[in-house]
Design brief:
Layout lengths: L1 H5 L2 E4 L19 E4 L6 E4 L4 H15 L4 H13 L21 E7 L4 E8 L5 H11 L4 E3 H10 L10 H12 L10 H7 L2 H7 L10 E6 L5 E7 L20 E4 L3 E6 L2 H7 L1 H10 L4 H19 L8 E6 L4 E5 L7 E6 L2 E6 L1 E2 L6
Parallel strand pairs: 5-6, 12-15
Antiparallel strand pairs: 1-2, 3-7, 3-13, 4-5, 4-8, 7-8, 9-10, 10-11, 11-12, 13-14
Helix pairs in contact: 2-3, 3-4, 10-11
The structure holds glycine.
The site of glycine (GLY) has 12 residues, from loops.
Length: 359
């Protein structure tokens, strides 16, 4: 990131800021105009593990060969969705409360503002590809459940069991614990489940999460595309839909500005239209890193007013049309990371924990 920024000349549009030593006030207070050649093509993902790297390799192959951003994003997302060890996305994702894997995904093209999404899709390993087809081959945006599966079948997607042994064992363990963290309950119970921190402390070995992945890319033409794909909240109520397939919540892409994607507690992300918010902030000239942090602050400010024990879990990634990127999470012992691939090579970029999760 540092390298990319130093390659570019920043010119403020503020009166009198063009000469002599330039004192940089808060980035957010400036309208910035960048000169010089933008870093593109470029592809990023919120996944920072080895699969994230493989995904970037796959997406980069497409971009390097002159392919478009949407195809690169799909290729990369498919790698993550196919990983059986990853319990947050696609094949191997943790199931709902009945032990059934239900996947959500969205796709958006920043040039045309077209979007497609699927929710509660069962038996199809690559929901991002189905979402892309909803975008490209229908006049609709969101297909759910049986309708989404029927659409996938028509397009020749193969049905398979997505519940791996690893995921089944984690789910079974959760059932046996009679989890105090489930999603049914009286207002008192629901108040308490927001105290997720204590749950993680008491049951550290049960995986229970909102894991998701975002893939965002800019191609050589400057066109931007993005995808968000997930198995959603583990052990969720049957039919629960998170933020990932909701355009503006889990994903938003605009060629004129950039793109943003969300992971974390979908309910908070939906209620705050977080990805759209981040893109709007970037449109004001705010850097992607800062825009992610401001979205987290917006969510914290809202929910802390109502519940001082609110335990947030969101992580946002964003990229602007100049190829600058950033990520921020609300909580975590370590800074959040993301994977990046461009002509500068592969790197794992470290963002920041914007807020500790404590009031
Ligand atoms: N962010 C994923 C979910 O809440 O389902």
């Amino acid at each position: 990131m540092k390298n990319q920024l130093s390659r570019r000349k920043f010119v403020t549009s503020a009166m009198g800021a063009g000469t002599g030593a330039l004192i940089f006030p808060q980035l957010s207070s400036l309208t910035l105009q960048r000169e010089g050649s933008p870093v593109r093509p470029i592809i990023i993902t919120s996944h920072s593990n080895e699969t994230g790297k493989l995904a970037m390799d796959a997406g980069w192959e497409v971009l390097k060969a002159g392919g478009n951003a949407a195809d690169a994003v799909e290729k990369a997302a498919n790698v993550i969705e196919a990983d059986p060890e990853d319990t947050s996305v696609g094949y191997g994702g943790l199931p709902n409360e009945h032990g059934v894997v239900q996947l959500d995904a969205s796709f958006m093209d920043g040039k045309t503002y077209s979007a497609g999404a699927v929710a509660c899709l069962e038996n199809i390993k690559t929901p991002s590809s189905v979402a892309k087809l909803v975008m490209q081959r229908t006049d609709h945006v969101l297909l759910v459940g049986a309708g989404a599966l029927e659409f996938a079948r028509v397009w020749g997607f193969r049905e398979e069991n997505l519940l791996t042994e690893k995921a089944r064992k984690i789910w079974l363990r959760w059932k046996e614990e009679l989890s105090p963290d489930d999603d049914w309950g009286s207002p008192e119970h629901l108040q308490n489940i927001r105290k997720k921190e204590s749950y993680y402390r008491d049951f550290p070995d049960i995986e229970h999460h909102y894991g998701t992945t975002n893939v965002l890319a800019i191609d050589a033409n400057g066109d931007i595309a993005g995808c968000t794909t997930t198995s959603g909240l583990s052990f969720k109520l049957n039919g629960r839909v998170g933020d990932s397939p909701i355009i503006g919540a889990g994903l938003y892409v605009d060629n004129e500005v950039g793109a943003a994607g969300a992971t974390g507690r979908g309910e908070d992300v939906i209620k705050s239209c977080a990805s759209y918010y981040i893109v709007l902030r970037m449109k004001e000239g705010i850097a992607p890193q800062k825009a992610c942090e401001e979205a987290l602050r917006m969510i914290i400010d809202r929910y802390r007013k109502i519940n001082s024990d609110f335990y947030p879990s969101e992580k946002f990634v964003a990229i602007n049309r100049f190829g600058e990127y950033g990520c921020a999470s609300m909580t975590g012992k370590r800074n959040p990371q993301m994977s990046v691939m461009s002509s500068n090579g592969f790197l794992r970029h470290e963002g920041i924990v914007a807020y500790s999760g404590r009031p």
